[in-house]
Structure formats: C-alpha cells, structure tokens
C-alpha cells in the first residue's frame, strides 16, 4: 500500500526539481527559439533565410540527439548523468553562439554557417539533457494517476519560460546587449544542471533495458510499421501535435521580429506584451488538469484549436492596438498551453514500458523536427512574398507581416483531422 501511494503521489523534492531544472531548460529553449532570431536581425541582418536554415537543421539535430541519448539512457537505466552533461555543454554552446556577433559582416555566408553550427551544437546537448533525459525522468517518476499534473507542469514551463524569457530577457538585452545576455543564460543553465544532478534521484522502477542485438538495433527498432501498428493511438496523438506545431512554427520564430521591426516596439516592450499575455493564458492549465485526468483529451484539443484560431486572427488585425493585441496573445497562448498539456499527458500514458527515453525521440520527430522544418520554411516563403521591407544597420531585407498570423490560424483548423482519428483510437 505504501509503494502504491508513493507512485500515485510525486514527492516535494521531485516537484522542486521538475520546476527548477525544467524551467532552466525551457529558458534556454526560449532563448534559442526567440532571441536567437532577433539577434540575427539585429547583429547580422534582416535575413529570414538564416532563421529558416537554423531552425530546420537544429530540429533535425534535436531529433537525432533525443533518439540517441534516449536509447542510451534506456539501456543504462539512468537519466541523471545525461541531464548533467547535457545541461553543462548546453550552457557552453549558448555562450559560444554569441561569438558570431563579432564575425565580419561582409562574409554573410561564413557568419550564417557559424550561427547554424553553434545552434546545432547547442540543440544537440540541450536535447541530451532536457528532451532525452529530463523528460524521460518525469515519465519514470509518474503514472496515469498524476500525469495530468505532470502534463500541466510541462505545459506551463515553456509558458513561464516565455514570460521570464521575454520580459526579463528583453530588458536585459536592452541594458546589456546580446552577448552579455547569452553569457548569463549559459552560466545559469550550467549551474542548475549541476544542482539537479546532485539532488535528483532516479525513478524507482527504472531498470536497464538492453536489446541483446546491440545499441543500433535497439535505436532503429522503433522505425518499423509493427511499432506504429502496436501503438496506433499514440501515433495519432503525435500526428495531432505535429499538425498543430507546424502551424505554430509559421509565426513563433518570427513573432519577436514582427513586434520589433513592424510594430515598432523595442525588445523590452515586446517581451512585456508577450509575457503578460502568456502569464494570463497559463491559468487555463488549472481547469484543464482535472479534465485531462478524467480522460477528456479530445475536448481539450478541440478547445485548443478554437482558442488558437481566434487568437491568431485577433493578433493579425490588431496592429499596435494593445487593447486588441493583448487579448489575441492571451487566446493564442491558451491554445498553445492546452495542446501542450493535453498531448504531453496523453502520450506519456501510452509510452511502451521500458522505452520511455526512446519514445521521447519519436515525440520530438512530431513535435519538433517536422514542425520546425516545414513551419519556418513555409513562413520564409510568406515573408519573402507578403512581408514588410526593412533596413537594419544598412542591410535591406524582409520582416514578417501580419499575413503569417492569418496563415497560421487558417492552417490550424487542419489539426482537427488527426484529432478525429485519435478519438477513434482512444481506449
């Protein structure tokens, strides 16, 4: 009975680690997904194609890294060492990314290669520590009775990170500029990763899961039709999040540059607007937790799509009108929070026992790699054809326009298609 209660209740230490270590990781992802993009416009030039290449390559690297280290941690039956090494190297390469600011601007290709390479290395080790090891650890210590709470926390973390990362980071960048900011972020994630390693304990039921045919056989074992057939419901959930995040990545990588170079806000005000809106949106996780624990995943996903579509259209028509822009951010934020919370909890309930780390890699294919290849590349086409021409430090290029938000809103409706099939497979 005591063991059952321990499994159904996550301890105080574990919750502290979920919030602290998880938040540090999400802050680093926020820096990469938002401020790396504004850094390129501010320090290199208004070249949306660099952002497209950077996000596409980093998403592919992220996927491989999550698979590789997730499989390795499953085989070893350990998560802590991978969290420690991943977070420390993640911080180092966050700092090194900022060095590209000092490269000669007349060698734009060399600068672009440096930016893409440093971002890829950061993504490789960030995925090792966060996506492969930390996320698997949260699955190890939870079960179906408490994954609504876990899903709420993991959905809230990126939002909190976006709030802190946009508000505080925007202010720090305005005061200190980008390179000093990257140093602060890099050192912070290194310190927190180290503390997490010291205080974290492995999940009680975690055991080494070794394929007798070797590492690479185990690595590729998930890439077969039999695996999909045996986990139809899980892959329908993955497809649902995949379609949603393709649409999400139409605009997310470019929203900071839209606020700064089209609406005319500085980094600080851009961060405050997004932070306040998303801070209110995060309240949606509270009622959603009970619904998710009661198995009402489909209702939550449909609600998410509705909020997202309305919010994106409001942002698109709002312009600089803050009384209209802010509600749009809140509604789109609620949509994002709900889809994250619901699909995270739902998919974790469906992971095959003993393969939590490896299936985090599968999740990354659908949540990160495909959306971050297709979303920004499609956005780049929209920006080049329907964007606003800008000149930054003598460099002429195209900035994102409100058309991105309209396109994302329209395409988000397509999320209903895989949601329908997921509802048919739901047990």
What this model shows, in words?
This protein is mostly helical. It has a single domain, classed as Growth Hormone, Chain: A, CATH 1.20.1250.20. Helices cover 79% and strands 2% of the residues. The chain has 18 helices and 2 strands. The protein has a two-stranded antiparallel sheet with strand order 1-2. A hairpin with a 2-residue loop joins strand 1 and strand 2. The N terminus is likely disordered.
Could you state the order of secondary-structure elements as H and E? HHHHHHHHHHHHHHHHEEHH
Mean pLDDT: 86
What structural class results from the helix and strand content? mainly alpha
Q: Shape, please?
A: globular
Termini gap: 27 Å
Question: Would you kindly provide a brief summary of this structure?
Answer:
The protein is mostly helical and 427 residues long.
List the helices and strands and how they pair.
Blueprint: H1 2-8, H2 12-44, H3 48-76, H4 80-97, H5 108-140, H6 147-176, H7 178-199, H8 215-220, H9 225-230, H10 232-251, H11 255-261, H12 267-281, H13 285-293, H14 297-318, H15 322-350, H16 356-386, E1 388-392, E2 395-399, H17 403-412, H18 416-425
Antiparallel strand pairs: 1-2
Helix pairs in contact: 2-3, 2-5, 2-6, 2-7, 3-5, 3-16, 4-5, 4-7, 5-16, 6-7, 6-12, 6-13, 6-15, 10-15, 10-16, 10-17, 10-18, 12-15, 13-15, 14-15, 14-17, 14-18
């Amino acid at each position: 009975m005591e063991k059952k209660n321990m499994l159904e209740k996550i301890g105080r230490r574990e919750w502290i680690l979920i919030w602290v270590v998880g938040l540090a990781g999400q802050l680093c992802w926020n820096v990469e997904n938002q401020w790396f993009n504004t850094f390129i416009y501010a320090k290199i030039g208004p070249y949306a194609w660099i952002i497209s290449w950077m996000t596409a390559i980093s998403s592919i690297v992220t996927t491989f890294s999550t698979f590789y280290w997730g499989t390795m941690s499953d085989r070893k039956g350990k998560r802590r060492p991978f969290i420690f090494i991943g977070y420390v190297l993640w911080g180092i390469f966050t700092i090194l990314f900022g060095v590209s600011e000092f490269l000669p601007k007349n060698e734009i290709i060399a600068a672009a290669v440096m930016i893409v390479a440093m971002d890829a290395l950061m993504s490789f080790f960030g995925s090792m520590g966060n996506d492969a090891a930390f996320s698997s650890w949260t699955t190890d210590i939870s079960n179906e009775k408490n994954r609504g709470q876990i899903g709420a926390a993991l959905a809230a973390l990126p939002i909190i990170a976006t709030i802190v990362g946009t508000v505080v980071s925007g202010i720090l960048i305005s005061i200190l500029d980008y390179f000093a900011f990257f140093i602060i972020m890099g050192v912070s994630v290194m310190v927190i990763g180290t503390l997490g390693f010291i205080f974290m304990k492995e999940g009680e039921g975690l055991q080494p899961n070794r394929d007798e045919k070797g590492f690479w056989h185990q690595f590729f074992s998930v890439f077969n039709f039999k695996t999909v057939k045996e986990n139809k419901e899980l892959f329908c959930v993955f497809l649902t999040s995949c379609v949603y995040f393709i649409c999400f990545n139409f605009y997310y990588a470019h929203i900071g540059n839209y606020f700064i170079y089209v609406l005319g806000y500085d980094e600080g005000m851009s961060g405050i607007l997004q932070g306040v809106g998303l801070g209110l949106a995060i309240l949606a996780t509270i009622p959603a937790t009970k619904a998710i624990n009661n198995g009402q995943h489909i209702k939550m996903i449909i609600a998410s799509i509705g909020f997202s579509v309305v919010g994106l259209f409001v942002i698109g028509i709002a312009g600089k009108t803050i009384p209209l822009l802010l509600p749009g951010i809140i509604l789109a934020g609620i949509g994002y929070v709900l889809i994250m919370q619901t699909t995270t909890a739902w998919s974790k309930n469906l992971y095959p026992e003993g393969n939590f780390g490896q299936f985090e890699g599968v999740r990354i294919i659908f949540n990160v790699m495909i959306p971050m290849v297709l979303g920004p590349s499609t956005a780049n086409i929209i920006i080049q054809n329907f964007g606003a021409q800008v000149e930054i430090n003598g460099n002429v290029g195209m900035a994102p326009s409100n058309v991105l938000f309209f396109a994302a809103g329209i395409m988000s409706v397509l999320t209903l298609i895989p949601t329908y099939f997921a509802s048919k497979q739901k047990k």
